[in-house]
Design brief:
There is one protein chain. With 319 residues, the chain is α/β, with parallel strands linked by helices. It is built from eleven helices and eight strands. The radius of gyration is 20 Å and the shape is globular. The two termini are 39 Å apart.
């Protein structure tokens, strides 16, 4: 599925401004060199993929990310310099259909190991509404269910499945360090399993099961823990909701005891705060973890997920 961007042409890629290829912690001054080291060089499309590569690869890999910290991943158009770095790498780890410019560059590259995270788990359709929400609050068919939801990393169980697939791909591509990858993968999966348990326990008994977000990023998380996500927008984080949708959300919030409208760090909070003000609700952050910045409530995937769990528990209330 194409979330919202058209595929850019090879000419457009070549003509793009050189953004540079960034590691998780800092940007390299020479992105081509960053992808040509003595280690197993992995180019990741954006933070959730880069985090997997670093956790699984450990000391044996050199990981670079095509998406800079703080950059909205859907907006990425990679440069000719980044495309060249991709060619110099040993592997690319990406999430197909989330970033069309990455898909185009990967398809055109001759890199031997191409790991598409969507092929390592199952994807589903999500839109403005997911989970077991009662039909009486919905007076129209959901026109947003137009594509498969890419936000698999927000469900620790699905993310663990992807991690296992990435680990096997690393073992095959770099057999000299297969034992390290196997050990690191097992450790990561164990941590994700523990995170899943904390979410299960923390969200098992809440006053309401419904939460409101700016866009439909949390469908898999909602389904995993028996919740319902009501999104102001659909899968597109920057689309504007209709007046009818806003009124519907306000009615639903009152009926279901919703207390909070969640927004995210990389997209404007204006719409969320307007709706919250009109409906006399609070606002808070629920982070889709598409990148780690100074505004993030945590320093990595796990700490931000813990912050998300805390925010959900507060918003949903405990019995």
């Amino acid at each position: 599925m194409n979330v919202r961007r058209r595929l850019i042409s090879g000419t457009a890629v070549a003509a793009a401004t050189a953004l540079g290829l960034c590691t998780l912690s800092a940007c390299s001054s020479d992105s081509a060199a960053a992808a040509n080291t003595d280690k197993f060089d992995v180019v990741a499309s954006f933070y959730p993929m880069a985090f997997l590569a670093e956790q699984i690869g450990g000391d044996q890999v050199n990981v670079s990310s095509l998406t800079e910290p703080g950059q909205e991943p859907h907006d990425l158009e990679i440069s000719a310099k980044q495309t060249a770095a991709l060619q110099e790498s040993d592997a690319v780890l990406y999430l197909k259909d989330l970033q069309p410019s990455v898909d185009s560059a990967v398809a055109q590259s001759e890199i031997k190991t191409k790991i598409d995270a969507t092929s390592l788990t199952t994807l589903e359709k999500h839109g403005n509404e997911v989970g077991g929400h009662a039909a009486e609050h919905d007076d129209h068919e959901n026109e947003e269910l137009s594509g498969l939801d890419p936000h698999i990393w927000l469900d620790p169980v699905r993310y663990a499945r992807v991690a296992e697939g990435v680990g096997k791909a690393f073992e095959k591509a770099d057999p000299d360090h297969a034992a390290d990858y196997k050990t690191n993968t097992a450790a990561l999966v164990k941590k994700l399993d523990a995170l899943n348990t904390r979410f299960e326990d923390g969200l098992a008994n809440t006053k309401t099961k419904v939460f409101v977000t700016t866009h439909a990023a949390f469908g898999y998380l909602a389904e995993r823990y028996g919740l319902t996500e009501e999104a102001i927008n659909g899968l597109d984080p920057e689309s504007e909701p209709s007046a009818a949708r806003v009124k519907e959300l306000e009615r639903m919030a009152e009926a279901d005891g919703v207390t909070t409208v969640f927004y995210e760090t990389l997209v404007s909070d204006k719409t969320a705060k307007t709706i919250a003000s009109d409906a006399n609700l609070r606002t808070d952050v629920l982070d889709p973890i598409e990148g780690i910045t100074k505004k993030s409530r945590g320093t990595d995937y796990f700490s931000v997920q813990e912050a998300n769990l805390k925010a959900l528990k507060t918003a949903l209330g405990t019995k």
